[in-house]
Automatic annotation (TrEMBL):
The organism of origin for this protein: freshwater metagenome
Family per record: Belongs to the enoyl-CoA hydratase/isomerase family.
InterPro entries, sorted: ClpP/crotonase-like_dom_sf, ECH/Chromodomain_protein, Enoyl-CoA_hydra/iso
Residue ranges crossing the lipid bilayer per the database entry: none
Name this polypeptide is given: Unannotated protein
Length: 286
């Protein structure tokens, strides 16, 4: 598939999605929204892809929404995708939801400015690494709007409500060290070391784990953030162990360990993953 505002490359089991409007600091557009969603559709469908890295071309990761249309930038709502009632859906939210639903782990390699949607789109990524030159900002109130891209859900869960409110209420820009201290990012790297560090992490995942188990584990961890009781997790864990315990991957994982050799997991994400998220009221599932 040909892309314009992003690029997608796959090498040795790792997909790299690059926001590709370097001359505009990779400002977010409607086209970029649709292309990002399509890119994650492709990575989910490709069994050769074991992990996804998202980064930006040039000096910025993403400087936020493209404001080139001036004062009416936000007047028509978030995107050309509408609800059944005709309300425009937030474009950043559509991207965040697609990342949340990814079957592959997602690593953000934040190489520069990540402001507005440029930072909120990274929140549903599993792990975020940043360059020393990265700058972050939840600047929505400074533009007369409100946080988007599902950030009112993700941000407090990542950094706590006190830090989230301070960043949102002030709209201030802050650097990589502040982001690291607050837990927004996992590590800080020199510009030349950022992508190699992200790739090393992705390769560790790809080389050592069963893709179907990763797809399920990813959804278990994210969905249980909103669980009301440990019993919710126990139900999901129990069903997951039952389903994966009888799989060819489970047999291979145990036998390869006993034989002291690398595992070769046969199950494929594209063949489908078990539904381990039961109706909480199902009497057959305690």
């Amino acid at each position: 598939m040909d892309f314009h505002d992003i690029s997608l490359e796959v090498s040795n089991g790792i997909a790299t999605i690059t926001l590709n409007r370097a001359d505009k600091m990779n400002a977010f557009t409607g086209r970029m929204m649709h292309e990002l969603i399509s890119a994650f559709d492709l990575t989910d469908a490709n069994d050769d892809v074991k992990a996804v890295i998202v980064t930006g071309a040039g000096k910025a990761f993403c400087a936020g929404a493209d404001l080139s249309t001036g004062g009416d930038t936000f007047a028509k709502g978030g995107s050309d995708v509408k609800t059944a009632q005709g309300i425009p859906r937030d474009g950043g939210g559509l991207v965040s939801l697609r990342i949340f639903n990814s079957l592959k782990p997602v690593i953000g390699a934040i190489n520069g400015a990540a402001v507005g949607v440029g930072v909120t789109m990274t929140l549903p990524m599993d792990i975020r690494l940043a360059s020393e030159s990265a700058k972050f900002g939840f600047v929505f109130a400074k533009r007369g709007i409100v946080p988007e891209a599902c950030s009112s859900y993700f941000l407090p869960r990542l950094v706590g409500i006190q830090q989230a409110t301070e960043w949102v209420y002030t709209g201030r820009l802050f650097g990589a060290q502040d982001a690291l201290s607050a837990g927004l990012i996992r590590s800080v790297h020199s510009p030349d070391e950022l992508l190699p560090a992200a790739r090393a992490l992705a390769e560790e995942i790809a080389a050592n784990t069963a893709p179907v188990s990763i797809a399920l584990s990813r959804q278990m961890l994210w969905r249980m953030l909103g669980a009301s009781h440990p019993m919710d997790a126990h139900r999901v864990d129990s069903r997951g162990i039952k389903e994966r315990g009888k799989s060819a991957d489970s047999k291979e994982g145990v036998v390869s360990f006993l034989e002291k050799r690398p595992a070769h997991y046969p199950d494929r994400v594209s063949d489908g993953i078990p539904n381990i998220f039961p109706n909480w009221q199902d009497p057959e599932f305690f």
